[in-house]
Structure prediction request, 136 residues.
Amino acid sequence: MRSEDAVEIVRASLALAFPTASAEGLNRAAETVIRWGTEGVADDLNAGLTTRMLLDLLQVAGISPEDFRLAEPDHPFAEPAEYRTWSRTEGMPLLPLLPRPPDDPTTPHAPPRPDGTSGRDGHPRPDGPSGATPRQ
Prediction:
């Protein structure tokens, strides 16, 4: 499948979930979902990470979290994780990266340091496949 086709399929799905998003916001969010898919983030999601991912997607799409309505309003909304296991996109808040697979997501992990290193081993964590910037 061509990447443009994959983005369009995800974009159409996101348009149903985020009806107030702009066309540009939906495009950015769809491209982000495709990138996260190539990173394999779905393998390690839990309730807190799923909530964090939703909040990140809302930010990328340009939607205020207060304007988002759950499809099932009675379903409890999990507390968002204070870290992420996927690459950061512009507009998302800075958070520590927990490398996959998470060895124990309930323990605190070292946040990025000013020298560009992150995690317990002190090695740089590149942001996404390009490796251009430190992960957040």
